[in-house]
Design brief:
Length: 154
Amino acid sequence: MHPFSATRPPRLAVGLGLAGLVPFVTGALGMWVTPEAWRERVLEELMAYAAIVLAFMGAIHWGLAMRADERSEKAPVQLGLSIIPPLLGWVALSLPVDFGLPVIFVAFAALYFADIWAVRHGLAPVWYPSLRKPLSIVVVTCLGIAWLSTVQGF
């Protein structure tokens, strides 16, 4: 069976995806349970990890575009999609936290829809949304929880 036609994500992808959630979950919880003096550092680390993951997720689109037919109109779109997440992560890190965290939040939410677009156009495996949806929900929820803690004034 061709890997793009499988309907269930590989177990290794699921396991690694879940492992990748650990810094998001601990960072979001850390904003509420660590001593106040450490919360700014926790948020900085959460945002840095989120920016790294955005770059990784963008690279997935780059790799998929490299596999696409060069004559396809969709490959250039996907190449463009590949560079936007790391750029947004970089911009977010250069902004004050009150502005940077919402940028990262929106970038992750939008990236999920870019992933769905890639699947619908045959550029990503059919199983990809079943992996990305729960991971994206947890990531966006964790970023929202961290964002809420900043609105609450830590």
